[in-house]
Amino acid sequence: MKFMYPNGKAKALTFSYDDNQIHDRKLVEIFDKYGLRGTFHMNSGQINHDGFIRSDEVKGLYRNHEVACHGVDHKNPTGLSRPQLVRELAEDRKALEEITGSMVTGLSYAFGLYSPEVKDVAKSVGIKYSRTVNSTNGYFPPADFLEWNPTCHHDAPNLMDLGRGLLDAPDYIELPMMYVWGHSFEFARNNNWEVMEEFAKLMSGKEDVWYATNIELYTYITAIRSLEYTMDGKVVYNPTAVTVYFEHNGNMLELASGETLTLA
Ligand SMILES: [Zn+2]
């Protein structure tokens, strides 16, 4: 069996943008125009400050995307005591959940800094995944979602090549994904919005691409990793709340929540 993304799609594309500055508005406009989706990692302590997104626009602006944590005050997580880090992350979750009215369990590490202890604290306050700034230039899903290395920053000189590479991903990569990260203010500062516009044009409207947020990818891939099998691999059980899709002997099959399937 070969796993596929929801509805049998072959690959996934996601984005992650940090720091909730007002330039997110223009970036979201580009994403929405091209049907791309991603995650906006916010410092709740900056909301409503000059140059930052307002609390009353969060729900509307990011309606097609995920809102996630980046730390209340953008402190270096490796420089905080354990209780300070708990506050930096847990209070961020709480503030963002109040604003969005939904569960907020994603994170990107401020300054891309983390350690085994930081990961442990993040997990203990209910964070499911966290993005680093270590580019892989690759398409494999992460081994450890609390150390989710992106494919590249949008400024990578090979961004377009990496995009084409995803669209033409080799068969040996199961569940290929491309993950692009950055800050919307970089487009404003460098006056290069065309970088995202061009990339969006290249990647948009593909039948076999799942345009997903970070948490949607986390949830789907974690469900696949939670499937249970008989030792001979012929019987598979889905104990999760997610329907998973796979190809088997040339057929597209789906296995719904709680279902058991015997493979021919
Ligand atoms: Zn940041």
Written overview of the protein:
There is one protein chain. With 264 residues, this protein is of the alpha/beta class. The chain folds into two domains: 7-223, Glycoside hydrolase/deacetylase (TIM Barrel, Alpha-Beta Barrel); 227-262, no CATH class. It is built from eight helices and 14 strands. The chain has helices spanning 24-34, 55-61, 82-100, 116-124, 159-167, 184-190, 193-203, 214-225, and strands spanning 2-4, 11-18, 38-42, 66-69, 106-108, 129-131, 152-153, 177-183, 209-211, 228-229, 235-237, 244-248, 251-255, 260-262. The strands form four sheets. Strands 2, 3, 4, 7, 8 and 9 form a six-stranded parallel beta sheet that branches. Strands 1-12-13 form a three-stranded antiparallel beta sheet. Strands 10-11-14 form a three-stranded antiparallel beta sheet, with no helix packed on it. Helix 1 runs parallel beside helix 7, helix 3 packs across helix 4 (116-124) and helix 5 (159-167) packs parallel to helix 7. It is globular. Zinc ion is lined by residues 18-19, 70, 74, 110.
- Overall form: globular
Structural class: alpha/beta
Strand content: 15-25%
- Following the backbone from N to C, one meets helices and strands in this order, namely EEHEHEHEHEEHEHHEHEEEEE
Give me the Rg, rounded: 19 Å
Small ligands present: zinc ion
In CATH terms, the superfamily of the largest domain is Glycoside hydrolase/deacetylase
Fraction of residues in helix: 25-40%
CATH-assigned fold name of the largest domain: TIM Barrel
Mean pLDDT: 98
